[in-house]
Amino acid sequence: MNKILLIIKREYLSRVKKKSFLLVTFLVPLFLIGIYALTIYLTAKSFESNQATVYVIDQSGLFEGKLANTNNITFRDASGDIPAEKEHILDEEEKTFLLIVPSDIAASSHAELYAKETASLAIQNEVSRQLEQVLRDIAFANAGIDRATVESISPEVNLSAKEITADGEKDSSAGAAMGIAMSLSVLVYICLFLYGAQVMRGIIEEKNSRIVEVIISSVKPFQLMMGKIIGIGLVGLTQFILWIVLSSALMGVASAGITDGQGVKAQIENQQIASGDEVQPVATSQGGIFSKAKQELGKVDFPTIIITFLLYFFGGYLLYSALFAAVGSAVDSETETQQFMFPITIPLLFTYILSFGVLVNDPHGPLAFWLSMIPFTSPIAMLVRIPFGVPMWQLALSLALLVGGFVFTTWVAGRIYRVGILMYGKKASYKELVKWFRYKG
Amino acid sequence: MLEVKNIVKQYANHRALDDVSTRVEKGSIFGLLGPNGAGKTSLIRIINQITAPDSGEVYFDGERLNPNHIGRIGYLPEERGLYKKMEIGEQMLYLAQLKGLSRKDAEARIKHWFEKMEMQSWWNKKVEDLSKGMQQKVQFVATVVHQPDLIILDEPFSGFDPVNVSIIKEEILALNRAGATIIFSTHRMESVEELCDSIVLINKSRKILDGKVKAIRNTYRTNTYRVEYLAYEESVLAVEGLFSIENAAHTDGNTTLTIRIAEGKTINDVLAYLIPLVQIHELKEVIPSIHDIFVQQVTAQASNPLIATQE
Description:
The structure holds two protein chains of two kinds.
Chain A: H1 2-16, H2 19-49, E1 52-58, E2 73-77, H3 82-91, E3 96-101, H4 105-108, E4 112-114, H5 121-143, H6 147-152, E5 162-165, E6 168-171, H7 174-208, H8 211-216, H9 221-274, H10 282-299, H11 302-330, H12 338-359, H13 366-371, H14 378-385, H15 392-420, H16 430-438
Parallel strand pairs in A: 1-2, 1-3
Antiparallel strand pairs in A: 3-4, 5-6
Chain B: E1 2-11, E2 14-24, E3 29-33, H1 40-47, E4 55-60, E5 63-64, E6 73-76, H2 88-98, H3 103-116, H4 132-144, E7 150-154, H5 162-177, E8 181-186, H6 190-193, E9 198-203, E10 206-212, H7 213-219, E11 224-230, E12 243-251, E13 254-261, H8 267-274, E14 280-286, H9 290-303, H10 305-308
Parallel strand pairs in B: 3-8, 3-9, 6-7, 7-8
Antiparallel strand pairs in B: 1-2, 1-4, 4-5, 9-10, 11-13, 11-14, 12-13
């Protein structure tokens, strides 16, 4: 037992001390935060610089005084001289447009927007929305329908999803759950391969450098294998925990920044109110998305997700890394691993792909249930289901099966490993692996 | 020290060891000899408890081999290696601790050995930064640092440069004088013949012979002598019933005869005949080397249909 601790310690320290470990540990949260901050920045930026001026030549005369300025667009009347106005646009800076409304717009439903560059979709949408609105009003008036009446009979239903749990009802959060479920499946999928491959590479290295024979004259091959698997697994856990801690710390800092950003938006709105312009609900609806996202995330049970994630990552890691270890012991170089990797990859890849299509949409269906029970697929499948809420007994059963699964795979892998590590320069086949498995002692 | 009894090790389609028994005396230097593929490494792996035999037993100091003995054996495998990216000092500490030493003891002993072998400055270096010869020294220290009672060296001198060979030979002999039992395993029999007290010869998974080197060579004496004399004397001819001439060579005015003495006669009888005839410079008995004995045995075995058909 003492020896296995020594091995774990060496495997752990030799990796944690590496510069690349520190680099990845600190860069990944920074990267995530960077993306987050960039999104916020760009969103805020779009509010500042999107001021466009649209000169309007209204040949129909229907729109005079009816086009409303918004956050992004200011409408100005132009002279009726089309060529002169087009000339004028060329002299102007960017974000200046010329809107020509033909006299027969009511019939043709067609207008033209000129600029030095093609107008952004947001501007196009806003202009056409306003034109439509005015035309609709005219149509209503012609048909003798009062617009206020129409608006008053536009019914709106707010559906709020609630879950019934033993603790009472609580707000459901399907959107956030779906997002988290998918990120978890990606994370586990990548990490199982990442750390599993590290186990495999470590074993190939020991085999290639021939130190393995020195070590197994001191410890049992199984101890060496388990020491390596556990040591690298702890490296993975350390990395996750550091990521979680660093990310939440950085998130805290970034959130403070966002509040500032919202302050800026509020300022812009205030200015526009002060200048007497009509304030459109664009900015407020943006702010609404932020607060709604926050609200949704608030409903998610993060502690449960983090704990189950760590459990399933470690369980799944133990199960798969044992298989990776067996593969590593059977080959002389990484290029030879291909033929054995296939059966290891299949169940993971299968669950991973399903998790996007089927599992997220039907997290409590029979397929999701069975995949989250089978040890080879449960590390991904169960994590996808967790954010949607999973009964305790299913969680317990799945974890128990996972433990059984990795006990089984480590037993099988151990038997192959103890023979494989001493076979140098021999290309192994599946038949050979079975033979090794059957060797006595 | 070590007793191997009726070991059989069967791999899928070949038998690596077939009913091999031998014993190694405490404090001796023992040669485990045989050509490549004879089963030497399989036997060593069983003694090191890396693999287990299908049948048969191994006794270590009278006890059945068990995990407690691991720390008392030092093993230098034929396929040598160290962690390339790990610092030498850390690596030594790790290997010594795996053999059951405490960190403190391990450190003291490693420092002692490093001083002895003039390796102190290597402590913080990585293995990949050392030359091949330096790595071999490190590997040797790793084998003996836990003061094993039994040191097993598999092809110990292959890959070592001549300077290191003599340094390491010296160290091995010193350890032997201090009480350690040494097992040399090699297919180059001449390289260890003069070092070994006893040997076992293995060929094609079976033991051919074992025992004290002197006794073995005595059993295989052929009553052959080499006689050198001044050549201007009249030449010597074989004498029926006394000796026959196997070979005659003339160099620098001398003649060297290889003669085989007839049964029932001794070298003294031959000398009595020769002395009046020639001026003798040198007389030496030709004792077959272990290698010769091995070749002789293997050919005998191959020509023996009883054994040959068992393969």
